[in-house]
TrEMBL record:
<protein>
    <submittedName>
        <fullName>Uncharacterized protein</fullName>
    </submittedName>
</protein>
<dbReference type="InterPro" id="IPR032710">
    <property type="entry name" value="NTF2-like_dom_sf"/>
</dbReference>
<feature type="compositionally biased region" description="Polar residues">
    <location>
        <begin position="1"/>
        <end position="12"/>
    </location>
</feature>
<feature type="region of interest" description="Disordered">
    <location>
        <begin position="1"/>
        <end position="20"/>
    </location>
</feature>
Length: 211
């Protein structure tokens, strides 16, 4: 897939598919934890997150390229994404996942992160942010954060604590960013995963990003 290079334009279509926009109730439900009856969990990232949450160690200081990647990731969480961030710090085949979606490739990631989030939230504030791990084998940054989101129109605020796992390639570009709410990996049972993938696939159809 080609990298986005221009500002997106909105295209509205008939409601043939479920609306992927997360509601306050949906956010509250998902933030309550990824575990629920019948959900199978992928434990690799959640094990990392739990270990980091409980470590209580000193924060890790990043330098050089990794510091720049981290700065770009923070801009995304503050709802200030730009095309330059994706061109600079993301692989074109990168993945993004949280409990609401699992995007594969920038054609899915960019509409979800750059266009949908700022339309839902009038403000996103990082209450706290601490880098817990920075390794080169595997090539990964792990940080804990508390984020406060303010919904547009209704003004409702929602605080979400999460552990974010950022996997990098040899050029220090993001190949996968996993936002683990409450330190738990998103559910991957058949039905829920299909809904998360549907969210990722439908969003580019609703919010066009020119090639």
């Amino acid at each position: 897939p080609s990298s986005p290079s221009e500002s997106p334009t909105q295209t509205f279509h008939p409601a043939l598919v479920p609306n992927p926009i997360p509601t306050p109730a949906l956010l509250g439900s998902a933030a309550g934890g990824a575990h629920y009856s019948g959900a199978k969990m992928h434990h690799r990232h959640s094990d990392i997150a739990r270990a980091s949450f409980s470590s209580g160690g000193s924060p890790v200081e990043l330098e050089g390229r990794r510091k720049k990647v981290m700065d770009d990731v923070r801009e995304l969480f503050e709802c200030r994404p730009t095309i330059e961030i994706f061109q600079r710090s993301w692989s074109k085949d990168a993945e993004f996942e949280d409990p609401l979606s699992h995007c594969k490739g920038l054609d899915e990631v960019v509409p979800q992160v750059r266009n949908v989030f700022p339309k839902i939230f009038s403000k996103s504030t990082t209450v706290s942010n601490r880098v817990m791990q920075s390794h080169y084998d595997p090539n990964r940054i792990v940080f804990a954060q508390t984020q406060e989101y303010t919904f547009k129109l209704i003004g409702l605020k929602k605080t979400i604590k999460s552990m974010v796992v950022v996997d990098l390639d040899d050029e220090e570009r993001i190949v996968k960013l996993s936002d683990l709410w409450n330190g738990e990996s998103p559910p991957i049972n058949w039905g829920t995963y299909r809904l998360r993938r549907l969210n990722a696939r439908v969003t580019p159809w609703l919010v066009k990003v020119p090639k």
